Amino acid sequence: SQQGEEDPQALSIQEGENATMNCSYKTSINNLQWYRQNSGRGLVHLILIRSNEREKHSGRLRVTLDTSKKSSSLLITASRAADTASYFCATESGAGSYQLTFGKGTKLSVIP
Amino acid sequence: DGGITQSPKYLFRKEGQNVTLSCEQNLNHDAMYWYRQDPGQGLRLIYYSQIVNDFQKGDIAEGYSVSREKKESFPLTVTSAQKNPTAFYLCASSEDRRPYEQYFGPGTRLTVT
């Protein structure tokens, strides 16, 4: 079952602009992860935020987590053409679960 | 270089044939996973394994089988019982402790006609 739902499904911006993607989920989580997938390739882990954290930064990436609203956002600042990819959120849930539950992704196009 | 390899990158089969997809990792990870991805969709878990000689069904295990005889290897067989096998298959691995950050292979695109 898919827990995370990304919004929007697709996003097109100009190079240099910021891109914001949102993820909503349904049940309590231990952590939430964001992954990037270039077309026809495997996924690459970008950043992880734990349930007791509210904000995390990594380079041009900023992730926020609001557990009361069961939502997260990924901000990519000063986007580049190379950021063009699909972005997925994945939630890690309860005790004993090894599974990540992935959303359907946001397809980001950065126009040079 | 440490990582996950999947082979082949593209695979074509006739309907009714079983086909096995390879996944090998040299990251010394205990846990391994198989996902299916359809166009415009997220990843759906087929099977996962936390330890050698043990594996668990995921959300869409019907028509698939796996084995885990070695820590490094987790092959997936798509059987003729899988009604719609054409898809992009991704293998991943992670350490056997939280958080389960997963490392993915490059994927195998299977086309069945």
**What radius of gyration of chain B results from the CA coordinates?**
13 Å
Number of helices of chain A: 0
Class computed from helices, strands and strand pairing of chain A: mainly beta
Overall mean confidence score, pLDDT of chain A: 92
* Radius of gyration over C-alpha positions of chain A, nearest whole angstrom: 13 Å
Net shape of chain A: globular
Quick one: biggest sheet of chain B?
7 strands, mixed
The pLDDT mean of chain B sits at: 93
Q: What oligomeric assembly is this protein in?
A: heterodimer
Helix-strand topology string of chain A: EEEEEEEEEEE
Separation of termini of chain B?
36 Å
Share in helix of chain B: under 10%
Major sheet attributes of chain A = 6 strands, mixed
Chart the SSEs and their pairings.
The complex is a heterodimer of chains A (112) and B (113).
Chain A: E1 5-7, E2 10-14, E3 19-24, E4 31-37, E5 43-50, E6 55-58, E7 61-66, E8 71-76, E9 85-92, E10 100-102, E11 106-111
Chain B: E1 4-7, E2 10-13, E3 19-25, E4 31-37, E5 43-51, E6 54-57, E7 64-66, E8 76-78, E9 87-94, E10 103-104, E11 108-112
Structure description:
The complex is a heterodimer of chains A (112) and B (113). With 112 residues, chain A is an all-beta fold. Chain A has no helices and eleven strands. Chain A has strands at residues 5-7, 10-14, 19-24, 31-37, 43-50, 55-58, 61-66, 71-76, 85-92, 100-102, 106-111. Chain A is globular. The mean pLDDT of chain A is 92. By secondary structure, chain B is an all-beta fold. Helices cover 0% and strands 50% of the residues of chain B. Chain B is built from no helices and eleven strands. In chain B, the strands form two sheets. In chain B, strands 2, 4, 5, 6, 9, 10 and 11 form a seven-stranded mixed β-sheet that branches. A four-stranded antiparallel β-sheet of chain B has the order 1-3-8-7, with no helix packed on it. At the A-B interface, strand 4, strand 5 and strand 9 of A face strand 5, strand 9 and strand 10 of B.
